[in-house]
Design brief:
This protein has 288 residues and is α+β, with helices and mostly antiparallel strands. Helix content is 36%, strand content 23%. The protein folds into 3 domains: 7-98, no CATH class; 108-188, no CATH class; 191-286, no CATH class.
Length: 288
């Protein structure tokens, strides 16, 4: 929520201490990320492929390419957070290259559901190919609706690892039970779910990573339903932003669409500009 508020303030010209002259250019940001990788793991070969793209190679030949656009978006929204943004991204990149080795086990207690837009699948395939993969298997996922999918992943303390269908068989995890298992894990792991707002327009937060995935938790919506006018309408313009109002709340819907417009222009990890109505446990496009 902090990043979104800062983005809105910046869009309105109300963000102090955030002059454009103080913000690194994309080339400068790429260079700083590359240098951070070198300092963190001097035994790796670190190569700047082009602006916003850094390639890591280990001494045993494993490779991964890091695309920095999302990290740069987060940094621009809060330039003072540069050090933390770079450290988080470097840590995630190092875990990614370590994960290219076959995992010894898949921890079923940490499998979670992540809501993605459909184009993410193609982006995922391209990322694997950029790491030298000859065969690109599908991650474990299922359809949520015509625009969105649920991708299943293992949530480690520092990184997210997507796994393949044969991993489920290898580690004796039943595909039919996967969604229930992942939702129970998510509910247990998210200990800070909060609702903000009044008068029928709300923002639901859960730490900044899995707000969109809250759509899959029935327990979240039983309390919200009585406080909106009409059916529950949700917006998830970015991964870390979940906004709620009622289908008969004209003012709430107007404000929601304005939030979606601003978040799409300023936010990171974009999902969809569409609004959806939560009906019978399903997510249907809302077009009113």
């Amino acid at each position: 929520m902090k990043r979104f508020i800062q983005a809105i303030l910046a869009a309105l010209g109300l963000c102090s201490g955030c002059s454009k002259s103080d913000i690194l250019s994309p080339n400068q940001f790429t260079s700083e990320i590359a240098e951070a990788f070198r300092k963190s793991s001097p035994e790796f070969k670190v190569e700047i492929v082009r602006e916003m793209e850094v390639k890591l190679t280990t001494i045993d030949g494993r490779e991964t390419t890091s695309f920095l656009n999302n990290a740069y978006d987060v940094y621009k929204q809060d330039p003072k957070s540069k050090k933390d943004v770079i450290q988080r991204y470097v840590t995630s990149g190092l875990e990614t290259i370590a994960s290219l080795k076959l995992p010894a086990a898949l921890d079923s207690t940490r499998i979670i559901p992540i809501i993605k837009d459909r184009p993410w699948l193609e982006e995922y395939r391209k990322a694997l190919m950029s790491r030298g993969a000859k065969v690109v298997p599908e991650p474990v996922y299922e359809e949520l609706n015509s625009d969105l999918i649920i991708v299943y992943a293992e949530d480690s303390p520092k990184n997210i690892s997507y796994f393949q269908p044969n991993d489920l068989e290898k580690f004796h995890i039943n595909r039919q039970d996967l969604r229930d298992l992942a939702c129970k894990n998510l509910k247990r792991l998210l200990t800070n779910i909060e609702r903000h707002g009044t008068n029928g327009l709300y923002m639901i937060t859960a730490g900044g990573d899995y707000e969109a995935s809250l759509l899959l938790l029935d327990s979240v919506w039983s309390d919200v339903e009585k406080d909106v006018h009409g059916e529950i309408v949700v917006a998830i313009p970015t991964r870390d932003l979940l906004v709620v109002t009622g289908s008969q709340d004209t003012e709430g819907l107007k404000k929601m669409r304005d939030i979606v417009h601003r978040a799409t222009a300023q936010g990171s990890y974009r999902l969809t500009t569409k609004l959806f109505v939560l009906r019978g446990g399903n997510l249907k496009e809302f077009s009113q």
